[in-house]
Amino acid sequence: MIGKLNHVAIAVPDLNAATAIYRDTLGASVSEPQDVTEHGVTVVFVNLPNTKIELLYPLGENSPIAAFLAKNTSGGIHHICYEVDDITAARDQMIKSGARVLGDGKPKIGAHGKPVLFLHPKDFCGTLVELEQV
User: Fold this and answer.
1) CA R_g for the chain
2) Tens digits of per-residue pLDDT, 23-70?
3) Are 12 and 75 in contact (CB under 8 A)?
4) Which residue from 30, 32, 57, 95 has the fewest beta carbons nearer than 10 Å?
5) Number of domains comprising the chain
6) Domain containing residue 57: CATH number
7) Any idea which residues carry the catalytic annotation?
């Protein structure tokens, strides 16, 4: 059911510094910062030949990334994202298999402008999983 790895998301306490590390130290192509208000984050995409790194910074104090950074002050991997062809069919299969879909279970539009869902980390080896329809 899952397709390619779409991205690995890293929560960062300083978006400018993190962007500079990927751009200047590692020589990667990085996007301009983009606010994704529905998810409470500002993102920068690090474009790699085979996938992306998504740098996440809290957009407001109620951001889930703010809570993550309160526990992980240096930042760290927040989630991994896999591609799916049909987000609704994937959701239904997850529920049927006993996995927990976070939130109200309805897909939301993610940073790439496509429908996404998040799955409970306790159901996936301690890792928060995002599914994105492609």
Assistant:
1) 15
2) 999 999 999 999 999 899 999 999 999 999 999 999 988 999 999 999
3) yes
4) 32
5) 1
6) 3.10.180.10
7) 130
Domain region containing 55? 5-133
Helix (H, G, I), strand (E, B) or coil at 24: helix
- Apex CA 43: angle with CA 42 and CA 48, to 5°? 175
pTM for the predicted model, two decimal places: 0.94
Q: What is the rounded CA–CA span in Å between residue 75 and residue 64?
A: 13
DSSP 99: P
Kindly provide the residue ranges of all beta strands, DSSP E only, lying in the chain, ordered along the sequence: 5-11, 29-30, 34-36, 41-47, 52-58, 76-84, 108-109, 115-119, 129-133
Q: What's the pLDDT at 1?
A: 87
Residues in Cβ contact with 15 at an 8 Å cutoff, skipping those fewer than 6 apart: 33, 42, 44, 55, 57
Q: What is the pLDDT of residues 75-127, one digit of tens each?
A: 999 999 999 999 999 999 999 999 999 999 999 999 989 999 999 999 999 99
